[in-house]
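Hey, resending since the last one bounced:
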Amino acid sequence: MESTAGPATVLLVDDHPVVRRGLAAMLNGVPWVGRLLEAGTVAEALRLGVLDSPDAAVVDLGLPDGDGVSLIRRLRHAVPGCVVLVLTMTQDDATVQACLAAGATGYLLKESAPDALLPALRTVLDGGLVLGPRVATAALSGTRGGVPSPFDLLSPRELQHVGLLAAGLSGGQIADALNVTEKTVRNQMAAILAKLGISDRVRLALLARDAGLHER
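The structure tokens again:
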């Protein structure tokens, strides 16, 4: 998803009502946030997802009736346009990697500064990737020893695209930065993925971060 048309509908999934209300209070009144939906279980989250087609879901992994990683996968399948930002206490490598593989494009710890949530949510809504400082290493550890990242095969222009993606920019932001159309960015990314033999943009961004391309 490149951008959200109009205020975004956001689904808040956490089994603690106080946490949900706190998140809702933080998001209430933000110009680009519209309806706020609340769910305390996997079943309720899936029901609201199907009924209301939210643009984004902020998901805790500790739910009473099921696995949060499975919820992410099922929600992304049921509502393909819904991006997922994980907000949890869990930071072990396997869980971070499993959430990204399931389709999440953001992962923050609950101990993050409160002002980190809004920009993270905005970034995933705009098609970007967000990893909190303390989970980035865990996520990247899953890329080492897997699919190789022969970035020397890319042209300077392709490296620009990849570097901006790794820095967390959305397709629209990359287009603006390079003065091209979003369609051109999509086509370029598809060509890069094919050339490197990488399955998706999230994995490409992680590999590029691991290679330090986002710092150029």
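The chain has two domains: 8-141, 151-215.

Sorry for the duplicate.
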